[in-house]
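Bug #77: duplicate submission created two jobs. Keeping one. Sequence:
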Amino acid sequence: MIVTLAFLDIKPESIDDFIAASRANAEASRQEPGVTRFDLTRQLDVPTNFTLVEEYQDVDAVEAHRTTDHYLTWKAAVEPMQATPRHSHRYEIL
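Kept job's structure:
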């Protein structure tokens, strides 16, 4: 199992649009083969900071996700909403 944590710092004026776009992406992502979890979380003490918690069966599922229309649409939509570039880390579940 592979877990990706994607960290996003969103402009305050874009929070509602970001949440809407990210929820749509998460719902579609959960339907993909090989995706076992896809959650949007927000940091309690810094409400402009979000983390996507994504769990995949394997690296192939991660790479397949990155080619989907819903991911590419989400990526294009949220990029201008970001206060800083997003970053992510991949982990394996031991």
